[in-house]
Amino acid sequence: xxxxKVLIIYTGGTIGMIKNVKTGALEAFDFENLKxxxxxxxxxxxxxxxxAFEPVDSANISPKLWITLVSTIEQNYQxxxxxxxxxxxxxxxxxxxxxxxxxxxxxxxxxxxGSQLPIGTLRTDGKExxxxxxxxxxxxxxxxxxxxxxxxxxxxxxxxxxxxRKYNAEYFDAFESPNYSELAEIGISIKxxxxxxxxxxxxxxxxxxxxxxxxxxLLKIFPGxxxxxxxxxxxxxxxxxxxxxxxxxxxxxxxxxxADFLKNAKDKKISILNVSQCNAGSVNLGLYExxxxxxxxxxxxxxxxxxxAAVAKMMFLFAQGFSNEQVEYYLSxxxxxxxxx
Length: 341
Hints:
alpha/beta, Rossmann fold, 8-stranded mixed beta sheet, 9 helices
């Protein structure tokens, strides 16, 4: 029997830390000793190999790491049936969203996981998360992967990567997917929700994109916004796009100063994507009078996309050499399962 092969890629984060018994400080452990801390790995009917990057704290993640991950997966794509990426939780949803776009037409599992407690501690959630992520990355049916997409596995749940956001810093169930159903529920057995997993027939080969355009900004609307601040944003050199977090179903102030901000952005060819500040729900332009200005100026509705996915998508699209019109068209379309159809 040919065993599935899974590559673990360690980028950093709490899951890869152990406590120094002398100093009490958390330190990155030697990844070669992984089986010492998770001896259950030797019982898998899966061939496991590992690559360790220089550890990066989740708060220091940048698009440079995303490109390194894409390159690493490309170099090993033919050798492995699935990939598990160990990553800090704070920015995991951003990285998973980015890879969902950068790995176009992906046909193998790329499963992100991590932990709230270091894997070397007694009550760690890291062991269970890691074991389950490896099992999912190697799971096949009729010689085809059961989850051929980028996903996040955390605390007995599997979510689509670009539908996920971190919402809890205190408990083990750190992530949620408010606008899209789970890909799998993990209990005594793993129950795959095949209706939610992307099994689209892939008529084109996977493309490994290695360019990101960081000339965008995330702007959250709040009462008392400074008009000087908004003018300064529009004067930012090289600015290509704004992910604009609005109230509720896409609502914003109706005052003239805000309308002028939007008009000036349009005049400068700066694309604006309207996303909701709410964890769940969707932008519905025109539902209230306070969102009609966006319709009048043809501002793009992000529908039910997460902020994390919106940021990654905009960075990805502006790096493809598209015209502004093309970028704005694709921002309004579902291209990697990030928007409900």
